[in-house]
């Protein structure tokens, strides 16, 4: 699954967007905000060094933004007394603060350098790509010119984001309705090679699985026991978490896929990838060949970055990422 040639990709994007004013380009801010790339790079570098979980947090934030209503930074908007926003939907309450903080820092710096010019949606898309690369993952082109959405409703999230407890058929369906193949879905799941999951997301798999066994038998027994110890106080401390990839938790690589056949998948959805005949072949391919995983992941992320985008008059440039103008 090869990356599209940049020139060909631009033609596809242009045809997709239609009008001239809505066209996305790689150098969208070249004249209006020439330090755009450098400011984001400086911001994410400082943040990732200070908090190594930033990369995983930002990738997850990006996915949770794009799948429900498109990549329009609507997940960044705060709720008001009149509206419950996406970020306060139950599935988004576990989104790590490092992701939000990264975008706020970049937006603040960009507003000082070039006011009312760069959208929060573009910042999130580029920060995600740069953090993937910084963590050792593949580079892929990000086309720019998105506008920020003017709507953020919690109700729009329901049924549009995968939950760890969902059966694999339902997870596949969520991605399919956004135009992603099973292979692309598995590749995107590889983002779990970095980042962490909260213990309360796996408590039923660890402590209350069945009468015959405390934990899900798909777990490696020693791994399950280790997770049980790490998560012992999850009821008292809801912030308790464990790395998604215990072998190389801060490095973007294919070890996540190598872990799954060994019973080292943290979430039920992780273990399900190796247990389902539709997804298992791709797990095995990506586990055996990191280059194939990187190509598939980069291509799928590039595609994800164009889902449901707002351009031209269909959106706005927010002054603050957490508030609609």
TrEMBL record:
- What Gene3D superfamilies would the database entry show? 1.10.520.10, Peroxidase, domain 2
Q: Check the record and name the InterPro entries matching this protein.
A: Haem_peroxidase, Haem_peroxidase_sf, Peroxidase_pln, Peroxidases_heam-ligand_BS, Secretory_peroxidase
Where does this polypeptide localize? Secreted
Q: Where is the Plant heme peroxidase family profile domain?
A: 23-325
Its EC top class is oxidoreductase
Where on this chain does Ca(2+) 2 bind?
193, 245, 248, 253
Entry superkingdom: Eukaryota
What SUPFAM superfamilies does this protein's entry cite? Heme-dependent peroxidases
Q: Which CDD domains match?
A: secretory_peroxidase
Is Oxidoreductase one of the keywords UniProt gives this record? yes
Instruction: List GO molecular-function terms, semicolon-separated.
Output: heme binding; lactoperoxidase activity; metal ion binding
Q: Which residues bind heme b?
A: 192
S-S bridge residues? 33-114, 66-71, 120-321, 199-231
Per UniProt, where does Ca(2+) 1 bind?
65, 70, 72, 74, 86
Kindly list the cofactors needed: heme b; Ca(2+)
The positions making up the signal sequence are 1-22
Catalysed reaction, written as an equation: 2 a phenolic donor + H2O2 = 2 a phenolic radical donor + 2 H2O
Q: Which UniProt keywords apply?
A: Calcium, Disulfide bond, Heme, Hydrogen peroxide, Iron, Metal-binding, Oxidoreductase, Peroxidase, Secreted, Signal
GO cellular component: a single term:
extracellular region
Q: What is its EC number?
A: 1.11.1.7
The residues that hold substrate are 162
Instruction: List site positions: Transition state stabilizer.
Output: 60
Active-site residues?
64
Task: Provide the cofactor note recorded for this chain's UniProt entry.
Answer: Binds 1 heme b (iron(II)-protoporphyrin IX) group per subunit.
Function recorded in the entry: Removal of H(2)O(2), oxidation of toxic reductants, biosynthesis and degradation of lignin, suberization, auxin catabolism, response to environmental stresses such as wounding, pathogen attack and oxidative stress. These functions might be dependent on each isozyme/isoform in each plant tissue.
Name of the protein this chain belongs to: Peroxidase
Q: Where does this protein come from, organism-wise?
A: Arachis duranensis
Annotated gene: LOC107495082
């Amino acid at each position: 699954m090869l990356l599209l040639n940049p020139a060909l990709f631009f033609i596809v994007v242009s045809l997709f967007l239609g009008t001239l004013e809505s066209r996305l380009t790689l150098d969208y801010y070249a004249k209006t905000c020439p330090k755009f790339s450098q400011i984001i790079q400086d911001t994410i570098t400082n943040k990732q060094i200070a908090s190594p979980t930033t990369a995983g947090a930002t990738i997850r934030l990006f996915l949770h933004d794009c799948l429900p209503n498109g990549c329009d930074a609507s997940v960044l908007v705060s709720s008001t007394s009149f509206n419950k926003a996406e970020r306060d939907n139950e599935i988004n309450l576990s989104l790590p603060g490092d992701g939000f903080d990264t975008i706020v820092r970049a937006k603040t710096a960009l507003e000082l350098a070039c006011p009312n010019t760069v959208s929060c949606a573009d910042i999130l898309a580029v920060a995600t790509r740069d953090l993937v690369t910084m963590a050792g993952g593949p580079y892929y082109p990000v086309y720019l010119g998105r506008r920020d959405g003017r709507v953020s409703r919690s109700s729009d999230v329901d049924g549009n984001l995968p939950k760890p407890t969902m059966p694999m058929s339902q997870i596949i369906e969520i991605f399919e309705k956004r135009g992603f193949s099973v292979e692309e879905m598995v590749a995107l799941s590889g983002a779990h090679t970095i980042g962490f999951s909260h213990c309360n997301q796996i408590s039923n798999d660890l402590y209350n699985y069945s009468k015959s066994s405390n934990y899900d038998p798909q777990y490696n027994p020693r791994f399950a026991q280790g997770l049980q110890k790490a998560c012992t106080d999850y009821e008292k401390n809801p912030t308790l978490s464990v790395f998604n990839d215990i072998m190389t938790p801060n490095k973007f690589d294919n070890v996540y896929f190598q872990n799954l056949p060994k019973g080292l998948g943290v979430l039920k959805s992780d273990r399900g990838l190796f247990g389902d005949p539709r997804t298992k072949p791709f797990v095995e391919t990506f586990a055996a060949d990191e280059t194939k995983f990187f190509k598939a992941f980069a291509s799928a992320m590039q595609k994800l970055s164009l889902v449901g985008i707002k351009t031209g008059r269909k959106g706005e440039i927010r002054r603050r990422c957490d508030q609609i103008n």
